[in-house]
Amino acid sequence: MTRLELENIQGYLIRGYAHMLYSRFVYLQISDAKSFKKWLSQSWKEMTSARHIPDKSKISSTHLNIAFTHAGLGKLGLHEENLGAFSREFRQGMVSDHRTRLLGDFGTSRPEVWNWGGPRNETIHLCLMVFGNDKSANDDLEKDKIVCLNYYDALASQFDAIGVKELFYVDGQTQPDNKEHFGFRDGISQPIIEGSGRVGDKDDVIKAGEFLFGYKNEFGVYPDTPLIVKDQGDLNLLTPDAGGSGHKDIGKDGTFMVMRQLDQDVNKFWGYLNEKTKNPDGSINVAESLKLGAKFMGRWQSGAPVTLFPDSDPGPYSDVNDFGYAKFDKDGLKCPFGSHLRRTNPRDNVDDHGKKESLKLSKQHRIIRRARLYGEIYEGSPTNTTPKGDVGLLFICFNADISRQFEFLQYTWANLPKNKELYNDPDPIIGVKETVEPGEEQNFTVQDEPVSKTIKDLPRVITVKGGAYFFFPSINVLRYLSTI
Amino acid sequence: MQQNSTTILVPVIADKVQGLLDQLVEIKRNSKEGISKEFDALSIIHYARWVVIDHGKSYINDEKKRNPKLLFVIDYDGEEGEMLHKVSEISSTILDLVYVFCEGYPPLNTVNTASRKSFLASHVIKDAAVYIGAPGRSVLQIQKEKKLRDFIRDFIDSRTWEDVSPDTVHRKIKEEVLANPDFSYLKEERVSMPHINYFGVVLLGICLLALLPFIIILLLIVHFFYERKDENFTKKRSQLDNDFLTELEVYEDFKNQNQFTQLVDMKEGNVRLLAIKFMFLLSNFLIKFIFTQGKLMGIPTIHFAKWVMFEKNSRVLFFSNFDGSWQQYLGDFIDNSGWGLTGIFSNTKVFPKTNFLITGGAYKEEYFLAWSRNSELVTNFWYTAYPDLSIKNVNNNTRIRVQLMKTLSERQAAKFLKLL
């Protein structure tokens, strides 16, 4: 079995840092590559690795990870030829005409009006991910915030000296019960990277090459890793391409990180559900609204899967994740085919394939999610619909093949309305278009007996505010980058 | 009504290639999001495309000098002659716009329906294997059945059905539909879904068993005398030509459907020719006997696809019209039909390394995805009659129609209602 070199992998890929409730994602531009590389030549040692620390008291109260955009690698001085060895998706970044179509970034989500990462914004070179945890406290967001920001201040005081300019930052928070702003417990189902030392259901164990370069993926081949095709820097720091090309592998133990800032319209989301489920007298039917919301999502607000708990939320918190759709809900009577969860991870029930084939297909399209919340800490519900100011989710995911993983999920499984036998049903959470063409419908079908029901005219409840593709290098490669 | 497919290959006048390319760009610019609607009026064409080949780009840097040609591919209802007549008559404007750049097209001041038709008919080339996702369904039938399904869905959504038995729901739907004069055709035109021909499958199995010794010999010959000398494709997607990919992407992923055109060269030798001809023969039988219900080797997203060999069997074209994205398309291929695809394309030049004709190849995912993209051609013009329907929708709509008209038991009615 594959064994990962955890000391060489940046920690955020393997561990979600769930106990660190406060984080700051700092987006920077390199103004002086020489000074920055000098800093990197020392500070690669400070990057948090995925090394397992059994004694919790020895875990640092702050964590730091780093990722680069394609422009950032260029600014560092990576040769044109070596920059060209990265995958097309990463080279192009999140914004191109074709990619905009795939991701569905139109209307108020169009890149031209993004806060960051769009064509009218300043070019981002790198992202520093700063985490903090007050070890004397127990799940205290405010106290973690102090630790995180103190660490950030210490780092930021050097920014001038190390040749970087801060463009902006997004503060990411985690609620102890991990609920996002619509009020649903998030991040329950995560792939487990084979060889990472983590344990879990075998259907969740995914070949390392789906998330890390230098290892075989679910197809049994090595992913398209970036190679050094024109020699530069201290090549002794790099390992040779496992694929046997003879080139040094700059990707090994690294991966790609997708970031998207998604504003959530809590009012529109629950307002729509309330409207569609209201009592004959027009008053809100809380139970029915919650139920339809759970059908949209695929889990109740507590996190309990509707596949296993079809009638009501068993509450208060659930991590239940051991279920399949083919086994418990072949006809979608509990978890509708169109629900966000079922379509983005169809488990053992892809199209009408058998269980084994379905699991194989599902495994080829998994991502590791690391979402953090921004804005007011707010738990939406049928009666709690109006947060103060903008709230949303800084969506982060890791994958070795952006095209086959993140982009496939967003386009083929979320945006396309033809999932399973459906006709006009985009993903109700992340796939709905803001405006439709004449005659075009956007519905949610609730499979039911004797016959299914159509919930019509879905509203778009998220707005993309920014986004970028990053390279998340190994710790050795960070050291290498300081030598180019 | 039977669906057919025709391929027409015409030489382009040597110095007019750029003019033709510009013309096709102009036509596309006037189209709706990359999908031209010129053939809507004919009501018999499912898909059509024009592709200019041999005007420069070669996927294997082939030095051979080739003369530019224009491919016209049409998937349609009924007979070829009748279709060519209709195209020549009703779509004359666009034909003239395009073929004025081609050798031997009648002068525009004298051209008429008959001369257009005879020009096209004289350049038809033979298809090697054709797959149809909804055999028997004409464009008109597909459109009528979509209307029927939408009507039923609206009726279902107009009231609640709690505690109504499935057979009662079925009966009420039927009454509602038949009361509407738009659907009076249902009483006269009875249709059925195509079946799997089990007798044919068994017969095919027996034939294959009888041929097994020869097949094994063929595989051994291919492996020991051919595959070891093969030049293999070893590029990854990151190494493909950027500008070319951008050109391909310009007309992709606007709607739920996409097109794919591919052109590759045959490897030399009669054994390779024998191997690919055998694979096409096998495909044709499988398509006829088994792949009749909307799935090609388990792939549930293809409307029409076909292979064509031309120039004395030295080159192979592949065309597909399908639902979803390029990524999904190829992922599906690898999982369900890697062996079939490898069996065909391993006989063409510079393919990912294979063993015994059908292993390796497509299963080398990264190389295969890159190979496929690398040997793809820009589809200069593309027409689809029903971009808003998936092939699953098309087949499901027919199933709804067939079941609607039957008298159903409670259990059968419950099953019928799941289709809606």
Describe the model.
The complex is a heterodimer of chains A (484) and B (420). In chain A, 24% of the residues lie in helices and 17% in strands. By secondary structure, chain A is of the alpha+beta class. In chain A, a hairpin with a 6-residue loop joins strand 14 (444-446) and strand 15 (453-455). In chain A, helix 2 (33-43) packs antiparallel against helix 14 and helix 8 (266-277) packs across helix 9 (286-297). By secondary structure, chain B is an alpha+beta fold. Among the domains of chain B are: 3-132, Alpha-Beta Plaits, CATH 3.30.70; 139-193 and 390-418, no CATH class. In chain B, the strands form 3 sheets. In chain B, strands 4-1-3-2-11 form a 5-stranded antiparallel sheet. Chain B has helices spanning 17-29, 80-90, 92-99, 113-121, 139-156, 166-178, 185-188, 198-226, 242-249, 270-289, 326-345, 365-374, 391-405, 410-418; strands at residues 3-11, 45-53, 69-77, 124-125, 127-132, 257-265, 302-310, 315-323, 354-355, 359-360, 381-384. Chain B is globular and about 70 Å long. In chain B, 42% of the residues are buried. Chains A and B meet through helix 6, helix 12 and helix 13 of A and helix 5, helix 9, helix 11, helix 12 and helix 13 of B. Chain A: InterPro entries: Dimeric_a/b-barrel, DyP_N, Dyp_perox_C, Dyp_peroxidase. Chain A: Residues 8-138 form the DyP dimeric alpha+beta barrel domain. Chain A: Its cofactor is heme b.
Shape of chain B: globular
- Do you know the CATH architecture of the domain at 3-132 in chain B? 2-Layer Sandwich
Helix share bin of chain B = 40-55%
Task: Determine and state the CATH class of the domain at 3-132 in chain B.
Answer: Alpha Beta
Low-confidence stretches of chain B: none
* Largest sheet: spatial strand order of chain B: 4-1-3-2-11
Dominant shape of chain A: globular
Percent of residues in helices of chain A comes to 10-25%
**For the terminal residues of chain B, how far apart are their CA atoms?**
25 Å
| Annotated CATH topology of the domain at 3-132 in chain B | Alpha-Beta Plaits
Order of helices and strands of chain B: EHEEHHHEEHHHHHEHEEHEEHEHH
Low-confidence parts of chain A, pLDDT < 50 over ≥5 residues?
Answer: none
Question: Tally the helices of chain A: what do you get?
Answer: 14
Tell me the strand percentage band of chain B: 15-25%
| Mean of pLDDT of chain A | 95
